[in-house]
Structures are given as C-alpha cells and as structure tokens.
Amino acid sequence: MIIGFAAILLVLVAVVVNASAAYLQRQGLTTLADGAALQGADLGSVGVYAEGIPEERLLQSGPQVHEAVAAHLRSVGAVRTYPGLEHEVRVDPTTRVVTVTLRAPLDLPLTVPGVEASPTIAATARATVTVLR
Which residue ranges does the record assign to the Putative Flp pilus-assembly TadG-like N-terminal domain (predicted)? Predict the structure, then answer.
C-alpha cells in the first residue's frame, strides 16, 4: 500500500511540475504574441497615406503587417527562446484587426505516463490602431 501511495504521489508531483512549466511557457508565448500583434498593427498602418485618417480604425496593409510581425519575432530572438516556433498572421479587412497566433513545442521537464511526448502550446493576440478625436 505504501508503494502504491508513493507511486501516486510521484505522478501527482510530475503533473504539477509539468502543469507549471506549461503555464509559464504559455505566458511567455502570450507576451510574445502581444508584442508581435502590437508591432504588426502599428507598422502595418500604412493606409493613412492612401485614405487619410479614418473615423475609427486605421487600415492595415497585409504584407506590411506580416513583415513587421516577422521582424519583431527576429529582433527579440523568439526562435532561440522557443525552438520550433511557428507563427500565423491574419488581418481582417472588415474590422481592421491584426491577429497573431504562435505555436511552439512544449518542453516538459518530467515524463508522465499517458501524456503526449511532444505537445504543442499556442497563444493568440489581437491588436488594432484606433483613432481618438
């Protein structure tokens, strides 16, 4: 009975340690996605040259947003911090919102039976540039 209890206790410790590691990595990815979305929305707002300053949100240029997000991820060393990082950028032409989704393999410190060997963790952030008058 003591051996069974010790085994259950070890599995619970491994689950808590892995859950903490997953939480911290997701928080880091969320921070990175927030910065990338803000940078993309800021530097992608080249529509003011074509249409002037609108009443609400600035027009986003898709290629400019993609380049700004990629440049931000390069400048902060995102791939070094999160090996295998993948990013997806979407610009909604109707709402003029930039959405950045980051995915990276999760590096779990402990092995737990029944848990996928290489899970993926993701974070999404949205940003827009709003004009206040």
Answer: 3-41
